[in-house]
Amino acid sequence: MKSGKVVYSCLAAATCIALVTCLAGALTHHHASSGSVNLAVGKDGGNKSSPLLYGMMFEEMDHSGDGGIHGQLLQNNGFQGSTLGLTSYAPVGDAQISQDFLSPVSAAIKSSLSVSVPEGVSDYVGFANTGYNGVPVMNATYNTSFWIMGDYFGTINIQLIGSHSGIVYADHNLTVQSMASTFKQFSTSFESKESPDGDNEWHLTFDGSKIAGSSLNFGYIQLFPPTYHNRANGLRNDLATVLAEVNSTFLRFPGGNNIEGLQVDSRWKWNTTIGPLVDRPGRDSDWFYPNTDALGLDEYLWWCEDMNMTPLLAVWAGKSYGDILSGSELEPYVEDIMNELEYILGNSSTPNGKLRAQNGHKDPWKVDYVEIGNEDDLTHGCATYPDRFNQIYKAIHDKYPHVTLVASNGDYNCLPSPLPEGVIIDLHLYRQPDDFVALFNQFDNQPRNQSVMIGEYGCRNTTDAKGTYWSFMQGSCSEAVYMIGMERNSDIVKMAAYAPMLEHFGIISWSPTLYGFDSSPGSITPSTSYFVQQMFASNKGDTILPVKTSSEFGPLYWVASRTGSQYFVKLANYGPDEQNVTVSIPDTHAGRLEMLAGTQFQGNQPHNIAVQTVTSTVQGDGGKYTVINNKNADKDVARE
Ligand SMILES: *[C@@H]1O[C@H](CO)[C@@H](O)[C@H](O)[C@H]1NC(C)=O
Ligand SMILES: *[C@@H]1O[C@H](CO)[C@@H](O)[C@H](O)[C@H]1NC(C)=O
Ligand SMILES: *[C@@H]1O[C@H](CO)[C@@H](O)[C@H](O)[C@H]1NC(C)=O
Ligand SMILES: *[C@@H]1O[C@H](CO)[C@@H](O)[C@H](O)[C@H]1NC(C)=O
Ligand SMILES: *[C@@H]1O[C@H](CO)[C@@H](O)[C@H](O)[C@H]1NC(C)=O
Ligand SMILES: *[C@@H]1O[C@H](CO)[C@@H](O)[C@H](O)[C@H]1NC(C)=O
Ligand SMILES: *[C@@H]1O[C@H](CO)[C@@H](O)[C@H](O)[C@H]1NC(C)=O
Ligand SMILES: *[C@@H]1O[C@H](CO)[C@@H](O)[C@H](O)[C@H]1NC(C)=O
Ligand SMILES: *[C@@H]1O[C@H](CO)[C@@H](O)[C@H](O)[C@H]1NC(C)=O
Ligand SMILES: *[C@@H]1O[C@H](CO)[C@@H](O)[C@H](O)[C@H]1NC(C)=O
Question: 563: CA distance to ligand 10 center in Å?
């Protein structure tokens, strides 16, 4: 949980009303139209609220990691995976480039870029990398590094330059002395000016006259803008900061489908994602492009630590999209999980704990939640999951009894019977707006002895995976309604993670996502759902409170909570009509109102953030607040 320091620009006996409203258009799911609703928030007596409730899910897809939140900006920088060839590379000047498998940079990085220079060349020549649909060029300090093999003593020139404009934004020299038969790494940093667009590339050139008639090899190139918390191999500061502002309580990683592998051997393997980058081979992933794994196990855990999120680590549980392993065939992989957990949780006298310490985290990581597999009710996993689950559960629970284990689905046909005590089941829901609203009371009548996580959810207006879709108010509002249902029942709904998190708008396989970006400045675009998540995660008490009213749910939904003397009321209006809501909140006289409002299909797109949260102060005469949601959220939204 966030440290609990909720700072509001309002008075001690504070209250916060978070209102998500969707207006206009014909919505089918409401009982009443415009109306007057009176809510009286009680002081005591509600369900306990899970401190972890609002979290986030991350897996490498849509270039959310490589070319996304991970800071490294050059694509195909280590020629990893089997599909990219020379993608993103081009020669600069009179030189020829090719991928050279005879000169690997390391055992993991199995090739390098050969740059050969014809006889008679006297200029600077070299190669370019065009990044992930361009390189974002900001007014900032960049770090860059590369490996070279070949006999060269002289200047290397690095530039950030417009691909079509030819405008040079950064121009930097360093002197290197490289060797004929060994790769050596060089790093440097430099300042850049901002480019007005994303159509930029990174250039590395050298004095061609010194190599004419011969060649140099370059490998594992990197370019980093400023990183979050200034970490080496860190997250992009700009993209990470926007995420941190959501105030999510946990991060579910590294998948998702992406942990499973198209085949057993191409699954996500923890021990190939740690240590020096040049020793990480990368892999062909589940989402149609190779992963560099530069965002690896330790980087995920740093991310959690830096954003004060509780890690929820998923481990591979025998299911790939090819073979599924169970019984004795699974045993070595159970051992592998135990090695992974020793790496994370073991002290530095254990072999794997020692390795973690060498890799930069002396103390064990704090991991209290582990999920066994992903969606094992699907893709032929069901029949063997109960056994696979029990096998892995036993190994982990015996050694680490403090770890809460999560089953990867909620279909009792695909779960052990009985489930061991304390296990959380994980449901995933991508639904159309009306369907989410229909599930508002999903948890009201569930047994109170089975904890639930919604490990992935988000409004998807289509089942067609291809194409770019944008979150829109009706959909985000339906998520808010569903979340109110979760929060009212957060004695059993322990955790919920909106998904997917992030997309590079130019290179998408699944959308919409919480937020997105491209290579141009100012392109970071929070969706309408981003603001819903932010409002809900940032305004949550530790106890849910009863609310007295003569109104029924729909189209207005509500939940109230409290931490000490601070009250929180969340409202969602899933309807086209204005609602006049009077809320009485005991012992308070002023508060803060956050409102997100828009018309049915309104949403945010790059360089056009049409809908965002509007915050105002509200006065409550005798603890009574009147809130009228309005199409123009920034107009008169609260009256006494
Ligand atoms: C570039 O960034 C520096 C440091 O943040 C700042 O002082 C300077 O004003 C910026 N320049 C432009 C043109 O934005
Ligand atoms: C880099 O070095 C080359 C060759 O000496 C020189 O022409 C160029 O001006 C230098 N560029 C910078 C930015 O110092
Ligand atoms: C960038 O390089 C400098 C040294 O040139 C180093 O001190 C700094 O930590 C690096 N920053 C990151 C984010 O890697
Ligand atoms: C990772 O662990 C497996 C055993 O689980 C082992 O076979 C493999 O060699 C290890 N790989 C690395 C890079 O350490
Ligand atoms: C480290 O962990 C091992 C295995 O769990 C244990 O035997 C040992 O006592 C621990 N050492 C320290 C210093 O805590
Ligand atoms: C607590 O949970 C029960 C069972 O679902 C539900 O009926 C009740 O409304 C919840 N209480 C509050 C205050 O939300
Ligand atoms: C929860 O309680 C019901 C009966 O109320 C029982 O059938 C079920 O097995 C229990 N589940 C767990 C996980 O204890
Ligand atoms: C959502 O789906 C409905 C039904 O298919 C369609 O009428 C509507 O145009 C879609 N809206 C958006 C914003 O995608
Ligand atoms: C939300 O996150 C922001 C940025 O990290 C922080 O300033 C704020 O205090 C947080 N709010 C809550 C309620 O945790
Ligand atoms: C809202 O409702 C309150 C109490 O029900 C009433 O006094 C007030 O006039 C209403 N305001 C509007 C704008 O309808």
Answer: 29
